[in-house]
Sequence to fold (354 residues):
Amino acid sequence: MKNFGSLNLHLSTTENTTEPIYVLSNKYYYNGEYNASDDFLNNYDIDVSYGYDEKYLYAPLSITGYDEEIGKSFTQYQFKIVVNGIYKFKILNFSTQEITYQTFNISNIGIKNQWGEDVYYDNYDEDGNFNPTPVLFLEYIDTTTVRIRTQPFSFNEIINLKCSTKFEDGEYQENRNIYNYSIDSGNTFYDNETGVKENIVDLYYFYIDVNVDGNYFFQFYNIENKNTTEGSIYVDINQFVIDNVDNIEKFTDKMVAWSKLHFGFLTYPFELIINIFGRVQNITIEEPVLTIPTLKDPFTKTIILNQTSYNLKDSVNISATSSFLYDIYLVLVDVILIFLFVMLCKKTFEEVFR
Fold:
């Protein structure tokens, strides 16, 4: 194998970003037809590990492109990174059989928090030692419950941590709630047993589900170096739920508009159901007030009766509950209309396809 140059790896960017970043090699340029035997990049084999003490399971992709500035085609190794952590590259030079290592500690891929802000975290210190501090995020569960979760970790990282949580001034209690999820890394994964190639990265985080407002604290204990770190977050469940319900309503409005465009009047029952839920959510108890306008003699313009307002609750002792019951009555009427409409549709379809 010819060796026309040395392999160098670098990051596509060191700036903060919420997009994936890449570890790239230097480029092999060529004119005309590509000749694999002349490509010095083929003189190297690269394996990649992600996370603390992980196996070398991944490999970069060989990509091709065209450089507009110099007017030449090129090949290049590219490894996609979608989550912060430590990435180790083991590089074998076929010509010399020499193995070299290069490590990248990635901490500039941000995660959006509950306020839409980009949050960055670093699970490793300047010397490359695993030493994370809890970075906390909120996730919507339902109208009464919010999930507090940490930043993600690889399997070998999270098993080296113990997590404890507490509320306000309480005592720390060990927390063993761990959630596992997978993301598409865009890279190649080698299964030594089955030979199946996948591109999935398994990630894990600690979490608790809460339904009380206040300050919550997370504490990490690093089993290997015995270090303890702490992080906290304040939870306002009502405000967080309101923010997320607003997003759900915007999504619902878009879906209704799309359905109307494609299905016409057939979307009416679903739109009516959505309107009912909206009406129930927005029911408010108000004072029932009757306003009588000013009455004048049309010829002499003499005022017969001045404008007067009557509070029905004060006048006839109607409680605010009556107003609430009236709103409920309107909702029930809508439910009956939906039922009758569905039955009418059912009957019509049966007659059509009889």
Q: What stands out?
A: The longest helix spans residues 320-352. The radius of gyration is 32 Å. The chain is about 25% helix and 40% strand.
